[in-house]
Amino acid sequence: MQTEVKLTTEQVMEARHSVRKYDASQAIPRGVLNEILRLAATAPSSWNLQHWRFLVVTDQTHKERLLPIAYGQQQVVDAPAVIVILADLEADKSALPIYNDSLAKGLVNEQVRDTLVAQIENAYRDNPQLARDEAIRNSSLAAMQLMLAAKAKGYDTCPMGGFDRDALIQAFNIPGRYLPSMIITVGKASVPAHPTSRFGLDELVIENSF
User: Fold this and answer.
1) One Pfam family of this protein, by short name (predicted)?
2) Distance between CA 19 and CA 193 in Å, rounded?
3) Residue 106 — φ and ψ, nearest 5°?
4) How, if at all, do strands 52-57 and 156-160 pair?
5) What is the mean pLDDT of residues 176-184?
6) Residues near 116 by beta carbon (within 8 Å), at least 6 away in sequence
7) Mean pLDDT for the stretch of residues 132-146
8) Which of 55, 62, 122, 148 is deepest in the core (most CB within 10 A)?
9) Residues 6+ apart with CB under 8 A from 63
10) How would you classify residue 153: left for phi > 0, otherwise alpha for psi between -120 and 50, otherwise beta?
11) Residues 6-44 pLDDT 10s
12) Candidates 3.40.630.10, 3.40.50.10420, 3.40.109.10, 2.40.40.20; correct CATH number of 15-91+136-188?
């Protein structure tokens, strides 16, 4: 019997690399994939609006449709699961349902709910660029968390920004509310990821001010 090895958070972060070659014979049990998605959805978000949706592509026919959209990147066909991260451009519409639920659970009172919902509505109404910025920023937090959750469960990932967004929207009937911001392949590596060099902290950290 194979014993599951639990990685620490630090080990997961250091072990995660972008994998582009997958063992197509290694499926992901749906329960495990759902747990990865559940963990991804615990990411933080502005006003708790949860600006992400996950388009899960596991059917081989759909993955074949995705291949030319992703400019022929073979991993979208070989990986058992492909997750399209959808950034919610109308996340303000989630405010009332979210805070009504919080009210019902006793997490906020009516005054707090009304104040927060008004803040959200005013912010989105008065600043059109905010909707796009917040959608991409917050959905990216969920995307990173998804990749770490996958690695913790023993699966590899690759974030992909190279795809035809308009063709993806059309081929998969994605509503205008959602902006595809990233594609993430998930599966078992058939070939280890290429090692990468990283800047040291002396190159990355600015103390207090430039």
Assistant:
1) Nitroreductase
2) 5
3) 80, 20
4) unpaired
5) 97
6) 47, 95, 99, 108
7) 97
8) 148
9) 57, 76, 77, 79, 82
10) alpha
11) 889 899 988 899 999 999 899 999 999 999 999 999 999
12) 3.40.109.10
Give the amino acid at 32.
V
Q: Look at residue 76 in the predicted model and tell me its pLDDT.
A: 97
Q: Is 85 helix (H, G, I), strand (E, B) or coil?
A: strand
Type of residue at 179: L
**β pairing state of 178-187 and 156-160:** antiparallel
Q: Compute the distance between CA of residue 17 and CA of residue 196 in angstroms, rounded to an integer.
A: 9
Q: Distance (Å, rounded) from C-alpha 20 to C-alpha 111? A: 50
C-alpha dist (Å) from residue 134 to 6, 47, 87, 145, 192? 34, 10, 9, 17, 34
Domain boundaries, the chain: 15-91+136-188
Three-state secondary structure call for residue 83? strand
CA 105/CA 82 separation, integer angstroms: 35
Q: Is the CB of residue 141 less than 8 Å from the CB of residue 39?
A: no
CB atoms within 10 A of CB 127: 11
Amino acid at 67: L
Q: Which amino acid is at 198?
A: R
152 CB burial (10 A radius; 0-12, 13-18, 19+): buried
